[in-house]
Structures are given as C-alpha cells and as structure tokens.
Amino acid sequence: MAKVKTTVKAVKVKLTAGRIADFKCTADKQQTFLWCDTVPGLSIRATANGAKPCIFQAKVRGKSMRLTISDVSVWSIADAQTEGHRLQSQIDNGDGQHQVKTDKESAKIAAQQAKESEAAALVMQEARKAN
Fold first, then answer.
1. 105 by DSSP, 3-state: which?
2. Distances from the Cα of 27 to the Cαs of 18, 31, 90, in angstroms?
3. Which of 5, 30, 75, 85 is the most exposed, having the fewest neighbouring CB atoms within 10 Å of its CB?
4. Alpha-carbon gap, residue 45 to 51, rounded angstroms
C-alpha cells in the first residue's frame, strides 16, 4: 500500500528565551522547527544532534530558500528578528543573498558557455584553414 504524505500546518509562536531553551527535536525526525509569530519565515531549527540554528526561509522566484542566520546562543531574539526583516526586505527588492548566489552561478555558466563557443569557433576556423 502506498504511503500517504500528510502536511502539518506550522504553528507560529512568540519566540522567548525559555521557549527556545526548552525546544528540542522530536525523536522521530531529523529536524523540527519553532516558527516566529512576528517575522514571517523566521524559525529556530532543532536538529537531532542538538544544534539550534536560527534560520530564515522564503520563496524566491518560486523556489524555497533557507539561510542560517546564526546559532541561538550567538544572536539575541531581537537581533534575529531584525535580520529576518532585513532579509525579507532584500528579497522583496530582488537583491537577497539567494539572488546574489543565483546571479553568480548564472555568470559562471555564461562564462563557461562563452569559452565553449569560442573554442568551437577556433576549431571551425582551423578546420577551414586545413581544407
């Protein structure tokens, strides 16, 4: 019998130091999320190995993007929320970190294609000279 995949609606809560300290990854999962109720996309991710990074997740051009902001022991809740707002603003303006990464990858691919085209043109030119 085929497995049926169920979707669980993410519960959003006020992030507090106590709530984050008590937050643990569920035993049957590799990671569990505690979503912020005030900053869309901001979450604490508890992993099976005990790590608790603060992450930001959003959709950019229809694709999900997830960035690690910092470990919860390094940034305050307020600082993480400010960073979440900043990242969302960058995405809204089209210049988020994911966009920068995509632009770099596109430029690299374009440069590689240009080299390949140049090499093919040289081969064709040499072939013409030989005939």
1. helix
2. 20, 9, 36
3. 5
4. 8
Amino acid 104: pLDDT:
45
Return the sign of the alpha-carbon dihedral for residues 85, 90, 91, 92.
Answer: positive
Domain that holds residue 111: 96-131
Q: In the prediction, which pLDDT does 116 show? A: 79
Task: Report the 10 Å Cβ neighbour count for 99.
Answer: 16
Query: In Å, what is the CA distance from 71 to each residue of 43, 106, 117, 124?
Result: 11, 30, 45, 55
Are residues 128 and 87 part of one domain?
A: no
Same structural domain, 100 and 89: no
Give me the pLDDT at residue 8, please. 62
**51-101, pLDDT tens digit by residue?**
999 999 988 877 888 888 889 999 899 999 999 998 888 888 876 555 645
Q: How far apart are CA 25 and CA 46, in angstroms?
A: 5
